[in-house]
Amino acid sequence: MSIPLESCVMNEIPRIEKKEFDIHSLEDEIRVDGLCGELLQRFYRHLLDSNILPGEASTLASSADYFTRDFVIAIKQKNILEEKPGIVRQFAGNWYIANTLEPNMRELAGHLTGLKAFYGFLHAFGLISGEFLHAVEKECDDGSYYGERIETFWKIQGDGYFAWERECTLKDA
Fold first, then answer.
1. What does the alpha-carbon distance between residue 106 and residue 52 come to, in Å, rounded to a whole number?
2. Which residue pairs, CB below 8 angstroms and at least 24 apart, start in 74-79?
3. What does the alpha-carbon distance between residue 34 and residue 37 come to, in Å, rounded to a whole number?
4. From the CB of residue 144, how many other CB atoms can be counted at a distance below 10 Å?
5. What is the pLDDT of residues 112-169, one digit of tens each?
6. What pLDDT digit, counting tens, does each position of 40-49 carry?
7. Are 117 and 1 in contact (CB under 8 A)?
8. Which residues of 108-126 are buried (b: 16+ CB within 10 A; e: fewer)?
């Protein structure tokens, strides 16, 4: 999903320092979770201001919330503005699949649409580079890979999980 840039009110987001989203302690994690909540509220309002229907805006913002707060902050303990390609791939190709009761491409595709919109929003406000946005969009568009990962997950037998996990590991390089 692409949000028209002309609908962006450039002074909508106060100056944000990327380092404010760094996590070094439990207190930082709690503080950053709150900062992300505020940023996600701005994203939701931006979607509404861009003439996205409230239900769709809520779905897109909820997907971005799930990714940023449940995965990037709580699991990876990373700065959501850190430009490290591969984070969406780890989420979609591993964590979502292994931590969802009934992982499926329809639901995952919805999450990936929300992530593309959210990262487009971050880019529009100068919080991430165009190069990183392009990398994220490419990861979000790799639905055939994620579909294959879901299928192979359902076929795991014995200790096959470890080989499956290594193919798209949550460990940072």
1. 20
2. 74/29, 74/33, 75/170, 76/170, 77/23, 77/29, 78/23, 79/18, 79/19, 79/21, 79/22, 79/23, 79/32
3. 5
4. 9
5. 999 999 999 999 999 999 999 999 999 999 999 999 999 999 999 999 999 999 999 9
6. 999 999 999 9
7. yes
8. bbebbbbbbbbbbbbbbbe
